Amino acid sequence: MITARQRVLRQAFLMLSALAFFTFIFAPIYWMTATSFMTEKEMLAIPPHFFPSEPTLRNYQTVLGIGDPEFLAFARNRAPAVFDIFPALKNSLIVAIVVAIINLLVGIPAAYAFARITYRRALPVLTIYLATRMLPPIMLVVPMFLIMRNLGLIDTPFALVMAYCVFTLPFTVWLLQAYFKTIPAELEDSAFIDGATRWQIVRHVLLPLAVPGCTCAAILAFMASWSEFLFAVVFSKTAASKTLPVVAASFVDTASIQFDYVMTAGVITALPPFLLALLFQRWIVNGLSAGALKG
Questions:
Q1: At how many degrees (to 10) do helices 122-134 and 157-181 cross?
Q2: Predicted TM-score of the model (pTM)
Q3: Structure confidence at residue 19 as a pLDDT band (50, 70, 90)
Q4: Is the CA virtual torsion 8, 12, 13, 15 positive or negative?
Q5: What pLDDT sits at residue 203?
Q6: Could you tell me if 59 and 36 are in contact, meaning their C-beta atoms sit under 8 angstroms apart?
């Protein structure tokens, strides 16, 4: 029998463990965000400042190319890549959004077929399909680079879109087919009896009920494309196609590290996925849990 003292000690242990885990996870994020509002001098001060003594938006103004012209000229000489952050933000958004849309356009019909068509080899086919997602990206980067080069797509966002769809589509199909199975087929049968066509059933019955699953799949595809680095650094050569992770990494080299711009690029990179997860957390959880129950 657990005594009152043991219960208090157990709760205290759990609280301390939760606090330690929270600190371990969020301390780097806080440090990155706080230092992005510091000057370089304060950032490198000893002892370190845990709070910005004089918060400044200068790093973010530099990224946008606004503010003191003298400081912008200094930043251009010190780290020219800082002016690539904003174009890279646009490239990352374009690539991630297009990948999410393609995942829905291709993944929904494929997943619906797997969910509704009775086929005894469906599970092995799905397993093989998902297994392609398990391949280490490093195995495919060279063959895909040669394919993209022969197609003349190197240094274009389209090359990244194609590469990311290869990795995200299998998981999208797997997730959505499991989610579609949670929707009773009797609803579609009733619509058939009422004279609805297949397209009308999908449009007016299936998709409205599958919004959480589709949203979850699109957000996961967006996040996977947004933060990918290996293919982006291999396929991108100029600012025309570089994404945010590639530009952020360019501030770290063997000679020096521009901590202020690394932190600023890190905050900008982390912000969209964080907001998406915050806004759609309920649908993400519903989509993943529904798929898990029926998968």
A1: 140
A2: 0.83
A3: very high
A4: positive
A5: 84
A6: yes
